[in-house]
Amino acid sequence: MLITKADGSKEEFKARKLVASLKKAGARPSEIASIVKEIEASLLEGMKTQNIYQKAFSLLRNSNDPTAAKYSLRRAVFNLGPTGFPFEDFLGKIFEAEGYKTKRRLILQGKCAVHELDLAAYSPGHSFVAEAKFHMNPGIKSDLQVAMYSYARYLDLQSTRICTNDTCGIISLYVITNTKFTKAAIDYAACTGIKLLSWDYPSHDSLHSKIEKYSIYPITVLTHLTTTQRRQLLELGIILCSELEKNQQLLQNIGLSSQKIDAVLHEASLLSGLK
Length: 275
Prior knowledge:
This protein has helices spanning about 15-25, 30-40, 50-60, 65-70, 75-80, 85-95, 145-155, 185-190, 205-215, 225-235, 250-255, 260-270, and strands spanning about 1-5, 10, 45-50, 100-110, 115-125, 125-135, 140, 170-175, 180, 195.
């Protein structure tokens, strides 16, 4: 049975991929077996991977643990849009968890031009600038052109500092996306020394891996919030599940009942406490 991927290409449905994603989200063996059986029974030729995900997600929502939220993590990162600002702030939180101090949306004078940068980060041992490429469509990839113009910026900024400390020279450049990179972009980055970070690249330290390693979950992952409520919280500057405990009043301000607030905080605490 052929299914349709986000980029429009076709591939054979492989149950093991579904099993792996459910297992990674923390689903129990009995849940996995039941969901795979139900999805295999409903498969149609050309069915979109998005439809398969939605069906699996709806079946997982019956669970009392944060499995459904973890399974929806990639979609939750897409839901940080439509602007790229919450995504940039989210990336800042991740690098702060790694020990960096960060600056977002800053303007730096290079040797030949002024540059608007999405993110800069520095620590006692390292500092870098980053270009964040946020896409709402999972089928869009960051390509060779993105890597090349990002590298040109890096070359122009090499004599620039991002803070006044001795360690604040720009040592390296990251290009970060919530989707994927083309092979040409990956090859170019390997040749020039650019660091790439995408949802699943590099395999040992991808964006997905970093989120789970530090339990840095965005509020868009919470299943007890509506799309409108998530958007309202993002506009109020709340990015992470871990930030809700200290900002419970905001949940009331956006119209949640006491019962709903308890459910949201419980789910957020389960996610934030995952290690």
